[in-house]
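Subject: design request, 429 residues
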């Protein structure tokens, strides 16, 4: 018994020693790559090694001599012989630094993870700030440079993935550099064709059941009917949160009400969470701001870079004012993105549909291995990619009653197993 215990202790010691002995290998290899200027060890509960690195990127890839910035990238190591998932994050990437962070696809495939913070967000923002270089093409070139650099360490299969705006970045990346990854798994994002696409409003008129839609609309109407009582509550709320706006409080309330239906279905709010219409003013108000927070329309919010992209290339959605026109202060919501939400330093941003056509044409004329994940009741699914006839490799999976939180693990069992089997088959090819 004693001998057995000693053998077990020796085995564990050698195992731990071997793990720690190899723990510096990735750091050493990263340090040898051109363009990486900073490496910091991070804690992780899910990966053998994890590092924050900063990689030099041109502000404008078409004119690389015109200045550079540092892009924040997180590298999570599973093994040099394992496949690699590149997360094309559409926003800031601070959350990926958390030791608890684990990305679904890399866990399913036991893969390395390369997490890329999007340019012009948080620590990946060029200085001085020039909005003209915040383009989908430059962002795709950022990803191409990072992937090309790290393939020297990870020569196996590469998979790109992203969620929401990050999913848009994945599709755009595939359209610009179709040879960079072996396949892609984009989650819950649109392919919009205008700054106010219009298909989302039509979607909200049919989503869910008639009784559910009525309950949502009746709540919106009741808030507007009680506008006099709601405005002091809104003032107190915004004062406490230190929110300021370019528009008067009456219009802020209007937009919160208009946004409510989109946000309600996007995030899968249970219809049972809507309070009775006979509830006190405060009860109704705090449900409204819980679902449709005024900070979305406030000045100085961290998503200003996203709104620039939406107005310029990515597109967005509008609002259907007609059901509420009797109670609204605003006459129309048209142009609200530029009027309310664009950073003032961005000036006037005109929409160019060229990006939509590039991605659409790429998907229509080619047959890349892409597996799309959507939620049935998510308004963003209104502008999901179309099903092109004759394609063998493109697959769209829609979770019944799924929201913007839809993931592979939330799918029904049969659908989930089919997805995983397809991913494993692609890895094995």
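Subject: RE: design request

Done. Sequence follows.
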């Amino acid at each position: 018994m004693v001998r057995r215990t000693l053998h077990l202790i020796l085995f564990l010691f050698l195992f731990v020693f071997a793990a720690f002995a190899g723990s510096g290998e990735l750091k050493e290899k990263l340090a040898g790559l051109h363009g990486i200027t900073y490496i910091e060890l991070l804690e992780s509960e899910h990966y053998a090694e994890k590092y924050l690195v900063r990689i030099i990127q041109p502000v404008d890839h078409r004119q690389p001599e015109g200045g550079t910035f540092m892009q924040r990238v997180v590298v999570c190591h599973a093994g040099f012989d394992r496949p690699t998932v590149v997360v094309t994050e559409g926003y800031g990437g601070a959350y990926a630094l958390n030791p608890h962070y684990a990305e679904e696809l890399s866990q399913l495939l036991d893969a390395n993870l390369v997490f890329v913070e999007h340019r012009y967000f948080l620590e990946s923002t060029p200085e001085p700030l020039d909005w003209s270089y915040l383009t989908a093409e430059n962002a795709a070139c950022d990803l191409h440079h990072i992937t090309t650099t790290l393939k020297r360490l990870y020569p196996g299969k590469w998979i790109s993935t992203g969620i929401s705006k990050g999913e848009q970045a994945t599709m755009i990346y595939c359209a610009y550099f179709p040879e960079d990854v072996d396949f892609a798994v984009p989650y819950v994002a649109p392919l919009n064709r205008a700054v106010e696409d219009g298909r989302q409003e039509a979607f909200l008129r049919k989503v869910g059941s008639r009784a559910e839609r009525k309950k949502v609309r009746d709540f919106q109407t009741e808030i507007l009917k009680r506008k006099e009582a709601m405005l002091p509550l809104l003032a107190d709320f915004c004062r406490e949160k230190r929110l300021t706006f370019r528009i008067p409080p009456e219009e802020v309330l209007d937009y919160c009400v208009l946004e409510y239906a989109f946000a309600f279905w996007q995030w899968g709010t249970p219809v049972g969470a809507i309070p009775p219409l006979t509830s006190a003013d405060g009860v109704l108000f705090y449900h409204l701001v819980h679902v449709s927070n005024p900070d979305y329309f406030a000045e100085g919010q961290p998503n200003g870079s996203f709104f620039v992209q939406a107005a310029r290339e990515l597109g967005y959605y509008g609002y259907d004012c007609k059901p509420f026109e009797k109670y609204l202060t605003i006459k129309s919501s048209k142009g609200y993105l530029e009027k309310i939400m664009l950073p003032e330093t961005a000036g006037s941003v005109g929409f160019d549909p060229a990006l939509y056509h590039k991605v659409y044409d790429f998907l229509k004329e080619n047959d890349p291995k892409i597996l799309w994940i959507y939620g049935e009741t998510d308004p963003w699914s209104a502008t999901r990619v179309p099903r092109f006839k004759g394609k063998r490799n493109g697959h769209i999976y829609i979770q019944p009653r799924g929201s913007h939180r839809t993931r592979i693990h939330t799918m029904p069992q049969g659908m989930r197993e089919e997805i995983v089997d397809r991913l494993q088959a692609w890895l094995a090819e």
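The chain has 14 helices and nine strands.
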